[in-house]
Amino acid sequence: MQKLSSLTSPLVLANGVEIPGLGYGTYQTPPEDTYKVVSEALSIGYRHIDTAALYGNESGVGKAVKDSGLKREEVFITSKLWNTERGYDKAIASFNKTLENLETDYLDLFLIHWPANEKQFGDEANKINLDTWRAFEDLYKEGKIRAIGVSNFMPNHLEYLLENAEIKPMVNQIEVHPGWPQTEAIRYCQRHDILVEAWAPLGEAAALSNEVLQRIAKKYDHTTAQVCLRWGIQQGILPLPKSVHKNRIEENTHIFDFELTDDEMDVIGSLRNLGGQCKVLDQVDF
Ligand SMILES: NC(=O)c1ccc[n+]([C@@H]2O[C@H](COP(=O)([O-])OP(=O)(O)OC[C@H]3O[C@@H](n4cnc5c(N)ncnc54)[C@H](OP(=O)(O)O)[C@@H]3O)[C@@H](O)[C@H]2O)c1
After folding, report:
1. Does residue 281 register a pLDDT over 90?
2. Domain 10-270 classified CATH 3.30.70.3040?
3. Nearest residue CA, atom 27 of ligand 1?
4. How far is the C-alpha of 1 from the C-alpha of 274, rounded, in Å?
5. Could you tell me where the DSSP H helices lie in the chain?
6. What pLDDT, in 10s, does the model give residues 20-35?
7. Pocket residues: Cβ below 6 A from ligand 1
């Protein structure tokens, strides 16, 4: 497992691209606040920003990166293709709009936000995902994206893609936090050299009042948020905490100066249903 020692320590994707091992999330960050909070995150030292077309805040991310004084290549930017834009042609058009919003001529990582699922699309679901993926492969081959991946794909969605793709996904971004450990999906991805990114790594804050996490946090003189994030990176997954408060944005970076024991990792991993959305991915209607 690749070990991280600081906020900018990279993990290496299957294609050799380096990705900073902790990212800054922007889901539900209002577009009008995005420039300010992303600027703060960059000044604190984050070099990896996660956004999506759905969030409506790509422009704020792009402007913050532009005005940061950092070179474009010093910041790793991820965005995602929304569900209404599935299919080859729509995916290409939506990607171009994302580049425009971000005021950049390439993306570091582009993800299919959610798989088309059988509940909505029946037997066509896998084919729709593959058709969308062909657009990602072509954009990658043209050098417009440095790495391509998926989000919210479980092994049953990944199987068909892995069998039929020319280029395998390098990343899968899924919900992971204490209380929603996703052990099987993580093992599956790690076996296939797909980096798992954790969305809602704090269980959307609801995990933070758990007594087990509080007790462990006290032992290390850290916070429960830091323990949640540490539990992620010690499994080789990449957490994407979101906050619009500067003190918390910074707090969430202090996770490289303590180490959970194997027992603590297991105890945290055995917690169940603490916050987040805990969605069964084949049942969603969007
Ligand atoms: N691919 C997907 O489908 C998907 C889905 C959801 C999320 N994501 C990505 O993953 C990122 C993280 O997920 P998330 O935003 O849903 O949940 P999260 O990061 O688990 O939790 C965010 C919540 O925790 C609070 N918080 C953050 N740091 C804190 C701290 N140190 N102490 C106390 N409270 C704290 C935030 O409040 P304040 O902001 O008020 O500080 C916010 O309410 C998103 O922003 C997005 O980039 C992806």
Report:
1. no
2. no
3. 243
4. 27
5. 31-44, 58-67, 88-102, 118-121, 125-141, 155-164, 183-191, 211-219, 224-233, 246-251, 262-269
6. 999 999 999 999 999 9
7. 25-27, 50, 113, 151-152, 173, 199-205, 208, 225, 240-245, 248, 251-252
Atom from ligand 1 closest to the CA of residue 241: 19
Burial 245-279 (b: 16+ CB within 10 A, else e): eeeebbbbbebbeeebeeebeebbeebeebbbeee
Check residue 283 and give its pLDDT. Answer: 82
Ligand 1 center–CA 45 separation, angstroms = 18
Q: Which atom of ligand 1 is nearest to the CA of 177?
A: 20
Q: How many residues are there in the chain?
A: 286
- Segment 130-144, tens digit of pLDDT: 999 999 999 999 999
Which of 80, 153, 175, 199 has most ligand 1 atoms within 8 Å of its beta carbon, as the pocket-test mutant? 199
List residues with catalytic annotation: 55
Hey, where are the domains in the chain?
10-270
Look up residue 23 and give its amino acid.
Answer: G
What number is the average pLDDT over the span 111-124?
A: 95
